[in-house]
Structure formats: C-alpha cells, structure tokens
Amino acid sequence: MLIRDAGPGDEAAWRGLWQGYLAFYDHPLPEATTAFTWARLMNPDSPLKARLAVTDGAVTGFAIHQHHPSTWVAGDDGYLEDLFVDGTLRGGGIGRALIDDLVALARARGWHRLYWHTGRDNARARALYDSYVPEDGHVRYRMTL
Predict the structure, then answer these.
(1) Domain ranges, ordered by start, for the chain
(2) For residue 139, what pLDDT band results from cuts at 50, 70 and 90?
(3) What are 77's strand-pairing partners?
(4) Angle between the N-to-C axes of helices 123-130 and 94-108, in degrees from 0 to 180, rounded to the nearest 10
(5) Percent helix, strand and coil across the chain, each rounded to 5?
(6) Predicted local confidence at residue 80, as pLDDT
(7) What φ, ψ does residue 32 adopt, rounded to 5°?
(8) What is the rounded CA–CA span in Å between residue 139 and residue 83?
(9) How big is the CA angle at 126 (ends 61 and 84), to the nearest 5 degrees?
(10) Which residue pairs, CB below 8 angstroms and at least 24 apart, start in 17-20?
(11) What is the value of pTM for the model shown?
(12) Which fold, 2-130?
C-alpha cells in the first residue's frame, strides 16, 4: 500500500469513494458541491488537502484534512475532516495507515495537535480512533447558515 497526495488524475477514483462516503452517512450532496470540493483539493492555495491510500494500483481510501491556527497552542492544529475506506476493504489496515500517515505529516509540518470527530453510533470507526486516543468529551454543534 502507498499513501500519497491526491493529484488531478485521481478525480474519478476519488469521486467513486466520495459517493460511497456520502452514501455511508446517508448525506447526498449536489454535484456542484462535489466539484467544488475537488477543485479546492487540487488548489495549491487551499488548506484543504487529500491523502489517498493506493493498494495494487487502485485508490482504496482517502483522508481529507486541513490545518488552521489555534488559540490553545502556539501554532497550528490539524483537522482530519473526512476519512473513508472502500467498504469491501475495511478492517485491513487502510484506515490506520491513513491516520498514521497524517500523524507523521502533521509532526513533520509542526502542527501541535490532530483532531477529528465521528458519529456516536459509528462503532467500527470509534474502535479504530479509540486505539489512538480516548474521545475528549466534547459535543459538536453545527448551525447551517
């Protein structure tokens, strides 16, 4: 398995996984939002980036992330916004490899913390995440504007 940055030639493979991710969360998005997200991932000036897991030449997972300044540390935090692995390959270490890669990338870039969230009922993901660090007790609120 190889983990690498997403590039322009990965759009079709990423879109296939992205649709699986949206279906998993039962959260369809307009095509314009997907296209906008891909454009941001490819924009060198955007903080939003994607790392891809490639297994036997096929894109099998992604970790979409960004970093931002923090009021809690003298530096930046990293945020793992979206993590997804092809449903037929879950449990084979791809998700862990994507997180490990992001941890190494964050350390190399001097980020102070890495954080993410998931649904309370996403037991499989939570088992993976709990193997890194216990959840911190925060509850997320999201207001649509």
Answers:
(1) 2-130
(2) confident
(3) 68, 113
(4) 50
(5) 40, 25, 35
(6) 98
(7) -60, -35
(8) 19
(9) 15
(10) 17/59, 17/60, 17/61, 17/62, 17/84, 17/86, 18/62, 18/84, 20/84, 20/86, 20/87
(11) 0.94
(12) Aminopeptidase (3.40.630)
